[in-house]
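Figure 3 (text version): structure tokens given as input.
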């Protein structure tokens, strides 16, 4: 496996960063999770824009232009001979000293690109649906740290994930400080009620996911289902007709039980199934060509 590290393609064994890198020491860095399907990178422009926005928000200068980054991504996918890929793009603050102050990171930020395969959940979840639980770990308040900064510090989400796993399920619903639904640990959440889709928005503490945006577009424009973005309570989730999660790694996964409440009849919903079908067609027919 070839990894892109600071301008060069190196073997996996040689892809090393310093223990003084502030990404390692403090989680001081940013990332994107991107997918390529059928030799096309899905929503690349949106992912690069979000990476550059994360960089701006944490005052990190990415040592490349967007076009160069696009070329580096394509080069890495081709070097690994992948047609479908999960791409992890990481930019760290770079090598510094023992101290938070980023001014002591004299070196340019490190840029790492890993292309691999990812299976977020078992295959049967996509056919039969999955069960999730609400956990006590609240999503960090967005007035402290915006969920839109995809930083290298995912402890908030990892703590929630561990609670879910301890309860015997694979995913957690995270609430915001007010006790309303924010999102899951690496996915956005949607419910369907009477033919209308509902999903928490940015002000509820959700990261504005790129898969979320694609699903909203498909629902509104292709299937003509209304979409309402805003506040979502657990009551609305428990009593929904359908529920599903969206994310680059997860894609679209139906949810059939939440906190031991069976959603509708406990099988993936019809609208969810329709959106999955449309999403699969969209990802294979759009995106930035790799070849
Ligand atoms: N919420 C959170 C907190 C995320 O980290 C999403 C929603 C979905 O956004 P996109 O743009 O991917 O539709 C994410 C992003 C993984 C992994 O397991 C995936 C994400 C984050 C961290 C790790 O590879 N998804």
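Below: residues designed for each position.
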């Amino acid at each position: 496996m070839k990894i892109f590290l600071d301008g060069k393609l190196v073997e996996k064994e040689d892809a090393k960063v310093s223990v003084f890198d502030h990404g390692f020491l403090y989680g001081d860095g940013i990332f994107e999770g991107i997918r390529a399907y059928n030799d096309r990178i899905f929503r690349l422009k949106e992912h690069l824009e979000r990476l550059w926005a994360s960089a701006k928000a944490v005052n990190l200068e990415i040592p490349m232009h967007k076009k160069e980054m696009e070329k580096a991504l394509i080069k890495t996918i081709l070097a690994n001979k992948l047609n479908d890929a999960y791409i992890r793009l990481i930019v760290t603050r770079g090598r510094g000293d023992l101290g938070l102050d980023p001014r002591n990171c004299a070196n340019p930020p490190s840029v790492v690109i890993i292309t691999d395969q990812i299976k977020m959940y078992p295959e049967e979840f996509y056919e039969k649906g999955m069960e999730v639980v609400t956990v006590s770990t609240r999503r960090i308040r967005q007035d402290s740290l915006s969920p839109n900064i995809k930083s290298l510090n995912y402890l908030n989400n990892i703590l929630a994930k561990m609670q879910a796993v301890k309860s015997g399920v694979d995913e957690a619903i995270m609430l915001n400080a007010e006790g309303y639904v924010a999102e899951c640990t690496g996915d956005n959440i949607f419910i369907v009620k009477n033919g209308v889709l509902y999903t928490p928005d940015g002000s509820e503490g959700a990261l504005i996911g790129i898969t979320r945006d694609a699903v909203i577009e498909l629902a509104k424009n292709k299937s003509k289902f209304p979409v309402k973005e805003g506040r979502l309570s657990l009551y609305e989730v428990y009593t929904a007709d359908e529920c599903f999660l969206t994310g680059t790694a997860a894609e679209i996964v139906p949810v059939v039980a939440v906190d031991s409440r069976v959603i509708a009849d406990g099988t993936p919903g019809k609208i969810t199934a329709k959106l999955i079908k449309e999403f699969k067609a969209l990802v294979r027919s759009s995106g930035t060509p790799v070849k």
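The chain has a mean pLDDT of 96.
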